[in-house]
Amino acid sequence: MKAWLQRWRSRRRLTCEDVNRFLAAYLDGALDAHTQAAFEAHLQDCDDCQAYLDQYRKTIELARQAADVPEPPPALIEHTLSFLRKRLFEEPPFNA
């Protein structure tokens, strides 16, 4: 068993670091009942962890939405890359 998991089980309450480690498992519904209860108790007392969880959920939702964005047309991609290549290899203006 991982050392940090053994350490947390020997304590009664979760730390913010523990919450960070268990976050994905919590959102997946993969925590055992005892760990989930400790996780939720910590969230009730810790505004920072609650805000982190809220932001994490928003990030997941934005990633899901981004997957639905269609790929740009090939001509737009080529035009953008051409523009960037030209800019990258242009010499900077001479400042006297």
**Fraction in beta strands:** under 5%
Query: Structural class of the secondary elements?
Result: mainly alpha
How many individual domains? 1
Distance between the termini: 66 Å
* Count of individual beta strands: 0
Count of DSSP H/I helices: 5
Overall outline: elongated
Order of helices and strands: HHHHH
Describe how the helices and strands are arranged:
Layout: H1 3-10, H2 16-27, H3 33-45, H4 47-67, H5 74-89
Helix pairs in contact: 2-3, 3-4
Question: How does this structure look, described?
Answer:
- This protein is an all-alpha fold.
- It has one domain.
- It is 73% helix and 0% strand.
- It contains 5 helices and no strands.
- It has helices at 3-10, 16-27, 33-45, 47-67, 74-89.
- Helix 2 (16-27) packs across helix 3 (33-45) and helix 3 crosses helix 4.
- The longest helix has 21 residues, at 47-67.
- The model has no long low-confidence stretch (mean pLDDT 85).
Question: What key phrases describe this protein's structure?
Answer:
single chain; 96 residues; elongated
